[in-house]
From TrEMBL:
InterPro entries: 3-oxoacid_CoA-transf_A (IPR012792), CoA_trans_fam_I (IPR004165), NagB/RpiA_transferase-like (IPR037171). It comes from the Bacteria. One of its GO terms (molecular function) is transferase activity. This is CoA transferase subunit A. The keyword Transcription does not apply. Pfam families: CoA_trans. Keywords: Transferase.
Length: 235
């Protein structure tokens, strides 16, 4: 069985260069590849195009790359929690391509499946459809959306084995699965790395065929984006 393991995050990100297009899994701060993002900051690569549902917050997640001006373009669905993102976008320092959330996920999944493009009704009649081919199906207009093309996909999983088979946990099973195999190289960091063949095949969410590199992550903060609590009633 082919082993996909690499020793650490430094080896996992070998080949990442300035100017590349990167996919990064996660939803808000849930299930983000914290180790990979920290290594991108350390490497100092810049002029990056980042595909991610969110752009992190000011001092965590992709917000760390924004602070260092390493991102040239963000392709996202929702970016409302990051003041630095807003500042760079409004000042023209950052190019932004806002994409409907379902379309963003499908553009990843299409790339994963090897489809060059797909039609969707989302965005027709809006700025999203400007300059794109449109076509009517069953009396409803659709927009032709191309699949993403990315150099690296950085994914966070709960458990994985040395062959690259993955299990995601809870809400972290968001954009991570559809980004596996959607780039030239998929790099996965896991909370628990197990010997090949030790995962129950019926529990595997993504097979190892979609993964090129996998490593044991460490020191996960799992920060809560907006902590909300209620006052406990007096007994």
């Amino acid at each position: 069985m082919i082993k996909k393991t690499v020793a650490d995050v430094h080896k996992a990100l070998a080949g990442v260069e300035s100017g590349m297009t990167l996919m990064l899994g996660g939803f808000g701060l849930c299930g983000i590849p914290e180790n990979a993002i920290a290594e991108l900051v350390r490497l100092g690569v810049n002029n990056l195009t980042c595909i991610s549902n969110n752009a992190g917050v000011d001092d965590f997640g992709l917000g760390l790359l924004l602070q260092e001006k390493q991102i040239k373009k963000m392709i996202s669905s929702y970016v409302g929690e990051n003041d630095e993102f807003e500042r760079q976008m409004l000042s023209g320092e950052l190019e932004v391509e806002l994409t409907p959330q379902g379309t963003l996920a499908e553009k990843c999944r299409a790339a994963q499946a090897g489809f060059p493009a797909f039609y969707t009704p989302a965005g027709f009649g809006t700025e999203v459809a400007e300059g794109k081919e449109t076509r009517e199906f069953d009396g409803k207009m659709h927009v032709l959306e191309p699949a993403f093309k990315a150099d690296f996909a950085f994914v966070k999983a709960w458990k994985g084995d040395e062959a690259g088979n993955l299990i995601f946990k809870g809400t972290a099973r968001n954009f991570n699965p559809c980004m596996c195999g959607a780039a030239t190289i998929t790099v996965v960091e896991v909370e628990e790395l197990l010997p090949a063949g030790s995962l129950d095949p019926n529990q595997i969410h993504i097979p190892g065929i979609f993964v090129q590199r996998i490593f044991q992550g460490e020191k996960y903060e799992k920060r809560i984006e907006q902590r909300t609590v209620r006052t406990r009633n007096n007994a």
